[in-house]
Amino acid sequence: MRGIAILAVVIAHYFGEVEHGIVVFTFGWPGVTLFFVLSGFLIGSIILEHNTSPNFFRVFYARRALRILPVYFLTITATLGFIHLYGPAPWIDEPFPALSYFTFTQNFGGSLGMIWLRPTWTLAVEEQFYLLTPLLVFLLPARLLLPSIVGGIVACYLASVLLGWDGFQMRGAGPLLYSSPVLLIGVFSAYIVRQRVKLPEIVRLIIPLAATSVVVAVAAFAPRSALYAVWPFMAALFAYCILLIMQGRRSPMFLRSRVLVGFGTISYCLYLIHQPINGVMHGLIFGGTADIATAPQFLVTCAALVVSISAATVSWFALERPLLQFGRRMSYSDTTAHPAGVASPSCPRRS
């Protein structure tokens, strides 16, 4: 599923969301939505399984730091360093102040930011979510956990509606508010799996039917700005797929494809570096921003894709995988779950 998400994002950025892009390839938002749901599910699973451990916060944040920070900081440093050396240039946007990127506060910048580092706003939102969610789960009594998750989804969504969807454009804490329902839907899925709650058959029918109807209706008849309103409904569809697989339904053959699994493995680095690499190659070769208007531009975009995939693969084997293995040496000293007495389901996951 990570492989599907990263392919949707990269193809959209390279071949859809450029000046002369192909309209049918502008499907990056579903990919971002899937990433958010998967992140919420992963983090929710870890928190619910280990939050009563005496060393929970130390191990949790150490592992998260090892997973996220090295590749992120390398990408930010290299990109800003290149801009400093070659800028100003007509094909280089003005970035936010470096401090905002290094402190994960670029989502407060009032806009989406320069195109090369634009994907990093989602990392900022996730980091803020990672800081808040474990604390809230730790402080909440067990009986209030599920009502709080559901209430958080509803409250954040309603607040977004009241504030207006145009507020998504990076005003203050807006990105975190608008993204929270999607992330919490992932956490809710983790809770369902953790508690081994079997969804009633009527719910299994209603969720995909209702969510699909809303997404299709808004996409077909509403203005583009209203698409943000269906973000949680799209997330519900992805969460539904996760629940079906985790509760014993055999995953479709294409999800077990080695190609998709491979892209999913390198997805984090590829997500961060694909825009800078494409922008730098087009800028140095053509002296302009990335586009596919001509055959040479299209070929350079394809070459940038190959370079990005290759660099992400090297990053995985040389940096990310060793750091993950090191992080797994730090174990939680107590695996008692919260709520207590619930056994952990056996499910593969990357922590």
From TrEMBL:
Keywords, in A-Z order: Acyltransferase, Membrane, Transferase, Transmembrane, Transmembrane helix
Location of the Acyltransferase domain: 1-311
Superkingdom of origin: Bacteria
Molecular function terms from GO: acyltransferase activity, transferring groups other than amino-acyl groups
Signal peptide feature range: none
A GO cellular component annotation in the UniProt record: membrane
Membrane-spanning ranges: 22-48, 69-86, 98-117, 129-160, 172-193, 205-222, 228-246, 258-277, 297-319
GO biological process, alphabetically ordered: lipopolysaccharide biosynthetic process
Enzyme class: transferase
Enzyme Commission designation: 2.3.1.-
Protein name: O-acetyltransferase OatA
